[in-house]
Amino acid sequence: MGHTENTARRNRLRCAALVLLLGLTLHGAAWAFEPFKIGAIRAQGLQRLELGTVLTYLPLSVGDELNDITSRAAIRSLYASGLFQDVQLLRDGNALVIKVKERPEIASFSIKGNEKISGEEFNKSLKDLGLAQGELFKRELLDQVTQEMRRQYNANGYYDVDIQSKVEPLPNNRVDIKIEVSEGPVSKIKEINILGNKAFPKDVLLKQLKLESSVWWKLFQKSDRYSKQQLGGDLESLSSYYQDRGFLQFNITSVQVALSPDKKDIYITINVEEGDKYKVKSHRFSGDIVLNESFLDRLVSTPDGAEFSRKEATESADRIEAALSDIGYAFAKVTPLPEVDEAHQEVSINYYIEPGKRTYVRHILFSGNLGTNDETLRREMRQLEAAPFSKSAVERSRVRLQRLPFIESAEVETKPVPGSQDLVDLEFKVKERQPGQIQFGVGYSGSQGFLISASVTNNNFLGTGNTVAVTAENSYLSRVLNLSWTDPYFTPDGVSQTISTYFRRSKGVIRFSSGFDYNILGADLTYGIPLSEFSFLRLGGGVSRTALQTFPNLTSDQILGFVIRNGTNFNTYQLKTGIARDTRNRTFFASSGGLSRLNFDITLPGSDLLYYTASFEQQQYFQLPYKFFVEFDGTVGYIDSYGKNQEVPPYQNFFGGGPNTVRGYRDGTLGPRDTPFNNPLGGKLRTTAQTELVFPLPLVSDNKTTRMGIFYDVGNVFAQPGDFRFGELRQSTGLAFSFFTPILGLLDLSYAFPINPKPGDQTEHFQLTFGTGF
Predict the structure, then answer these.
(1) E-assigned strands of 58-113?
(2) Rounded to a whole number, what is the largest CA-CA distance in the chain?
(3) 268: how many CB neighbours lie within 10 A of its CB?
(4) pTM for the complete prediction?
(5) What's the CA dihedral at 441, 444, 448, 450 to 10 degrees?
(6) ∠ CA(271), CA(276), CA(277), 5° rounding?
(7) What is the pLDDT of residues 681-701, one digit of tens each?
(8) What is the distance between the alpha carbons of residues 609 and 639, in angstroms, rounded to a whole number?
(9) DSSP state of 513
(10) pLDDT tens-digit map of 573-632
């Protein structure tokens, strides 16, 4: 016992002596002199700095007294400047001598081998820290950076990383700093084990995680690369899976991440405590209950007796917040508070409501509309200024902006007004797309000679949102001119008006060698009348005059028979009707919602030809996980005559094949054939369906300007409805790509593989259409 006490006493004496020695050393460096009045100040050891720079950071001046307190403050201040590695205060008579060692300047700084941790943001952060050319070198900062880089690499599965820093002294107190990184291979997850699970098997729980063990047959597997951040997200997903199925008190007790000796394999072990399974006993509402409780009950998806689900409770609270925001409570907060009865494994959910003050919209602002008038955007608003804030009205306003053909995207930001608790401003940020297209084509045909075609369309004429379109085509055998004008707000309440005129003239063969001239002059006037936010009525009329001319030995039997029975000149007066419902989120590149459209057009009594056309189109978009979605577009069209001894004019028949009907078959070649030339004649019934699986591209995933997908098309044209046979439907599959380019406008291309072509079908694998934006 005595020996132990002596040893402890000697250790204490050594410690005391060491402390005293350090104290004397510091005392000598800073103030190994009696206090004195400073008569002059000099500096030693300066290389790049001037004395004035030192004096800037020195809290002393000539005439001050240097003592124990002021000397300590002076040394702290000079060190804090970051300019010096060492500072000493010396006395030479009545002069204060400051002896310093300047920090070296970084002459150059470089990092090599850091492919996984790099980029402009990383380089900027290093520069902000002071690791850049021209900055002063701090060894401790370099050590911190290398340690943080190693930590980041380890967090992303690179445990075999080697980071070496080299500091090379240069003349004039400068240094050259190099960091060399050898990243090594990424460590892969060999096994993930979950312990303590009883309610669910291990394979079910592992499916909730994005990280997974390496599998030899997955050649490009990335999910086996360990990431600390991803593991944290997976643990949250695992907790949510349990808590959404009644296990309210589920807990992850520990997580072990083990590394193999060769640093190539990682083993993850997750220990869990499931706890008891809870059911919902009841729910109630507390706080400031603004809405009727019976209405709130309909928003709650946690019925009594059901398994407790954190997800359902949260979504119920979100629906209540949305309902409150629709009546002006823009910042309402609803918190689901579980009240646990552990004895009976039951939970009572208390939805605590904090509506806040009712909010009104002061101003609605727009940005990004460089080519669009403010009024053009403002008329799409369903949220009004000075009205109570409504979340659904704001969102609907955003969608209506996004649906405009000249708007690529629209976002909205709610900004509280400074100094007010009940006013907000709304700023809609839009991104415009090219409002117009120019399509231009030049070609040559042995039968028609040189062909020149062009069309100009602008759907935001002078920023008004009006659409003007001009189409012209000229060749040795045909001339076409179409003009149209659409005002989407012909009346303030949203009635649209479209006026169009057209002239088509041909000198000979105009449709697959059917052998007749086809000259027509006409005009249409159509109105779109809104019935609701999503539905509108189409109503209008048109007049046209058509003249046919046949040629011996060139005209098909069907055309000759029609001319013999009906003549060659026809005046028609047409009534155009229809109804549509459109819930798509965009008109171009839609990804959700749908379009249902039913049209019925009929030539009126007094016309030389009496016939009607009925068509129905259904577009629908189905969302899938991981930004995938399915686009379906189905159409059915039927045309027939009415009245005694009436016929459908052949030039009004339906035709099939091509990008808009069945890809992989030449445009307009499907359906019945004429005699004796066996050329496409068209038919009275056409049915098509295009289904496309759209997937996000690796670099562009918003699907707003670029889209790629795998398609399946099916359809055909039949002479009469009674001729319809499923076995006659043509099918194709392939790859489709759409891109809205700033130069070429909307570009659509497809590469198709006809599935069941029959003898006589004209197939065409690659099909392309495009226009030029301006």
Answers:
(1) 65-66, 84-92, 95-102, 105-112
(2) 136
(3) 20
(4) 0.66
(5) 70
(6) 115
(7) 889 999 999 999 999 887 655
(8) 13
(9) T
(10) 999 999 999 999 888 788 899 999 999 999 999 999 999 999 999 999 999 988 899 999
